[in-house]
Recover the amino acids of this structure.
């Protein structure tokens, strides 16, 4: 029973959605199911938040190593949660927009969440540079092709590309680095991306079929 | 060691600049208004995050935990106000959010639709039973719905927009004529594109040993894929450096008042 029902739900849901794509009169089912999915995702966020609360609260209770950071995490979590749920600072009270002008959540998004996310991403600039250095040390033909392409694209997409090709006469402009990069982007890179996309699509289609037919049961905590 | 020294010099220079700018009144008072406070909070968190370049340290851990807590809460709040209230309550019992929160929602929801939305409510509650050790079997029902929906939606989307559309775009005439005349450059591009797709796909074909014609095509495919990864790598570097420049611009212009 505890295996049959989830299999049945998965199979029927997936079949209904595939049929809905093929039969236009029942196409609206897709929209309803997408809404159901969004609602379940919202419940999953509640689950995640509660899990975060439980884990960090337990760490503080045990006074485990680094418990002070757990306290920082919990305080920022609870403060944002309460202020966000109450739509503090916004116009229209609880009926207004949750991220409307003047709300604390919009302030947190602009001055805490956005800068932190952008800075973490920008840190990768340093690590990407060291990764490329290590890749270049491998000295294989493939690694060299990859790095030369990266370098050409970087140069071609900045003002340097224009400067380097500025001396070319109009009749040979097509040999310029900017045009070369444009050709690389629209021909070999499109070819590579297309092959990857076809491969990914085949992988997703086969995984979907395996899940639908109950061949892949890993999502229920069982071995495939 | 050199890296650490460079970062320490950078941090000290920034601190010195901040002290000089603050003493001359060039920087805004953090308590002047909410925007000024935001700039100071944002600058402090940016510096804490950047301190990771020096190695894992308490400042970075502090900022990291603030980020985790705030982002988890933000997503929960968004999920509550943008999915649960309008989509679930708005269909199940729209009178409740209208009366409680004064929200602008349509009240003319039919009985059939109200009953239909009992299904996601029950599935959502089933998902929450995961907290209880004996509720895992029940929560699997909701998980099965999520997996089934994902499988059904992805199957159709990827079959249409990725698999078939990409094959359709690849099958083009290999000889290009422009105004009745043979266009060598366009022809070369189409031939390279088509051969590139086939060779790159040959690399992913593992059902036969890759030797002979298949092996040669596979080797060309690796080159095509490496060119693709190289371009992605270049764009990633450009994106990350642009983000870094934006953060530096924020620190120097918005916070310190230079530029």
């Amino acid at each position: 029973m505890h295996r049959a029902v989830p299999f049945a739900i998965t199979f029927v849901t997936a079949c209904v959605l595939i049929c809905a794509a093929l039969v236009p009169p029942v196409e609206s089912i897709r929209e309803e199911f997408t809404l159901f999915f969004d609602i379940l995702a919202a419940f999953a966020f509640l689950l995640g938040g509660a899990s975060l609360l439980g884990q960090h609260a337990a760490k503080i209770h045990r006074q485990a190593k680094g418990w002070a950071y757990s306290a920082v995490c919990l305080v920022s979590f609870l403060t944002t949660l309460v202020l966000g749920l109450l739509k503090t600072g916004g116009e229209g009270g609880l009926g207004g927009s949750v991220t409307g002008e003047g709300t604390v959540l919009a302030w947190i998004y602009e001055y805490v969440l956005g800068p932190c996310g952008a800075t973490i991403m920008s840190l990768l600039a340093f690590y990407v540079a060291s990764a490329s250095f290590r890749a270049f040390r491998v000295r294989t033909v493939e690694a060299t092709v990859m790095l030369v392409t990266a370098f050409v694209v970087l140069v071609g997409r900045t003002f340097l590309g224009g400067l380097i090709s500025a001396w070319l006469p109009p009749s040979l402009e097509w040999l310029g680095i900017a045009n070369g990069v444009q050709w690389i982007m629209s021909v070999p890179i499109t070819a590579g991306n297309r092959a990857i996309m076809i491969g990914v699509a085949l992988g997703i289609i086969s995984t979907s079929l395996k899940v639908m037919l109950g061949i892949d049961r890993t999502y229920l905590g069982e071995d495939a | 060691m050199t890296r650490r020294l460079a970062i320490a010099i950078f941090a000290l220079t920034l601190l010195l600049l901040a002290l000089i700018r603050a003493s001359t009144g060039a920087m805004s008072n953090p308590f002047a208004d909410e925007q000024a406070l935001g700039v100071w909070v944002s600058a402090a968190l940016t510096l804490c995050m950047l301190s990771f370049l020096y190695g894992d340290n308490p400042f970075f851990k502090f900022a990291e935990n603030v980020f985790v807590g705030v982002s988890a809460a933000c997503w929960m709040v968004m999920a509550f106000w943008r999915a649960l209230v309008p989509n679930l309550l708005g269909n199940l019992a729209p009178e409740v959010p209208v009366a409680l929160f004064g929200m602008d929602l349509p009240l003319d929801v039919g009985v059939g639709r109200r009953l239909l939305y009992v299904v996601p409510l029950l599935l959502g509650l089933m998902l929450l039973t995961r907290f209880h050790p004996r509720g895992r079997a029940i929560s699997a029902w909701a998980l099965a719905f999520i997996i089934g929906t994902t499988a059904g939606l992805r199957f159709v989307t990827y079959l249409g927009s990725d698999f078939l559309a990409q094959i359709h775009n690849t099958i083009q005439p290999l000889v290009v004529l422009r105004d009745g005349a043979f266009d060598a450059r366009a022809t070369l591009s189409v031939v390279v594109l088509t051969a590139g797709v086939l060779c790159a796909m040959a690399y992913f074909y593992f059902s036969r040993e890759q030797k002979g014609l298949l092996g040669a095509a596979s080797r060309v495919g690796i080159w095509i894929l490496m060119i693709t990864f190289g371009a992605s790598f270049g764009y990633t570097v450009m994106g990350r450096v642009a983000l870094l420049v934006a953060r530096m611009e924020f620190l120097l212009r918005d916070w310190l008042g230079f530029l």
Observations:
- The CA atoms of residues 56 and 70 of chain A lie 5 Å apart.
- Chain A has a mean pLDDT of 88.
- The helical segments of chain A are 4-22, 28-62, 67-85, 104-138, 141-156, 159-164, 177-186, 188-212.
- Chain A touches chain B through 126 residues (CB under 8 Å).
